[in-house]
Amino acid sequence: MSDLAPAIVLVRPQLGENIGAAARAMLNFGLEDMRLVGPRDGWPNPAARAMAAGADPVLEAATVHEGIGAAAADCSFMLATTARVRGLDKPVLTPEAAVAGIRARAAAGERTAILFGPERAGLENDDVARASAIVSVPVNPGFASLNLAQCVLLMAYEWRRQMAGDASPPPQSRPDPMHAPAPAIEVERLADHWEDRLDAVQFFFPPEKAPYMKRSLRNLWSRMPLSRADVQMLHGALRQLVRGR
Amino acid sequence: MSDLAPAIVLVRPQLGENIGAAARAMLNFGLEDMRLVGPRDGWPNPAARAMAAGADPVLEAATVHEGIGAAAADCSFMLATTARVRGLDKPVLTPEAAVAGIRARAAAGERTAILFGPERAGLENDDVARASAIVSVPVNPGFASLNLAQCVLLMAYEWRRQMAGDASPPPQSRPDPMHAPAPAIEVERLADHWEDRLDAVQFFFPPEKAPYMKRSLRNLWSRMPLSRADVQMLHGALRQLVRGR
């Protein structure tokens, strides 16, 4: 996956803490290629390390560059994340469309990058102008407070979500045969058991309603996704309720 | 949108800061219905307010409850977020599939909730047993460090992404309210009723297995797509079995 994965380029990041938090966000979803353009407080930065909490390999492998051009020298498709879209004549993509674009390029053997701006002001127009397209996270227009690491997190999530969508869904392991769906014959026996016992305590009353009530109860058992363990427990509960007398 | 949006239920949250950060994460993507179950440091909490940074309306409207049943009393579809899936026989969904499920329920007029556990330990099995399904964010198995607010953020993002993706399907007509899915509070009461009566007849035996058996039984009720009519019938059947003595 890593060969296809986009590089995460932090442009003029201010706080080391945020660089560390971005590294964590990346690694949560399997992104490992971090590139820093002009980090304000120099590099390496102990505050980044402290915040990375285990994502140190991402920080250790991070490369530092003077400009976006150098940072993304090997990338032929670059996306600029911005909160505000500022009249640049450039496609504005949702994270979903952006990642789809990245994947299409990667599938063609191209390397890709996503640019994230400084915490306070975001990317400048000159930065955005270098990108192939703009990515804008569709936040609530009445309240937008995504920080740098959250924005990285959402893009990384979107990447992994789409990558996973390609693979066949992971089989749900059901090692215990008792958790397998109960075969119809077992559900039938369960329904019989309950009907018999409830008949014995005059549950199906008044008599003219009994057929309808019995059908409803049968329908209930057969609509339920019962496992074999469930069936066994429902037999046991009923036996014990009757025996409890 | 807010009528269809899921409630965010924070179960036994520890730090006020994280409640505030969760409120921000929610509001970023237009979710406003926060419910708190047993917040450790009481409520209201000044630390939450300080962290909310403008998402105060979410905190001010937040409701506090003693248990999950009460917090999600009006919700008939409840999802439990967990990092680890722990051998409960319950569907495990990606955020994408979970939100699709929420939207389908919402389109049918049902209210829904997503449960998030305490920061340190996450939801307990007894909490998860109350949910209809499990949501697990597909993080890197070699590095998973999502915090509470990040997890809320990803679910909220996924919600908004799908809402933006297409118009919600037209509401399905459900003429008979008794055939509507039972709200969580009714399922909770049904589970209580059965547990009490089965306790009285020593069903949960031997004692060291009782907690496991009780959880399995709760898990059974919450996994089943019970209608209100089903719940009523299962109450009635139990009453009659006990009375039959």
What does this structure look like?
The structure is a homodimer of 245-residue chains. The first copy, chain A, has 10 helices and 7 strands. Chain A is of the alpha/beta class and 245 residues long. The first copy, chain A, folds into 2 domains: 7-164, SPOUT methyltransferase, trefoil knot domain (Alpha/beta knot, 3-Layer(aba) Sandwich), CATH 3.40.1280; 177-244, Helicase, Ruva Protein, domain 3, CATH 1.10.8. In chain A, strands 3-2-1-6-4-7-5 form a 7-stranded parallel sheet. In chain A, α1 (16-28) links the parallel β1 (7-11) and β2. Mean pLDDT of chain A is 88; it is low at 168-174. Chains A and B meet through α1, α7, α8, α9 and α10 of A and α1, α7, α8, α9 and α10 of B. Chains A, B: Pfam families: SpoU_methylase. Chains A, B: Residues 7-157 form the tRNA/rRNA methyltransferase SpoU type domain. Chains A, B: One of its GO terms (cellular component) is cytosol. Chains A, B: InterPro entries: Alpha/beta_knot_MTases, RNA_MeTrfase_TrmJ/LasT, SpoU_MeTrfase, tRNA_m1G_MTases_N.
Protein topology:
The structure is a homodimer of 245-residue chains.
Chain A: E1 7-11, H1 16-28, E2 34-37, H2 46-52, H3 56-61, E3 63-65, H4 68-71, E4 77-81, E5 92-93, H5 95-107, E6 112-116, H6 125-128, E7 133-135, H7 148-166, H8 184-200, H9 210-223, H10 228-243
Parallel strand pairs in A: 1-2, 1-6, 2-3, 4-6, 4-7, 5-7
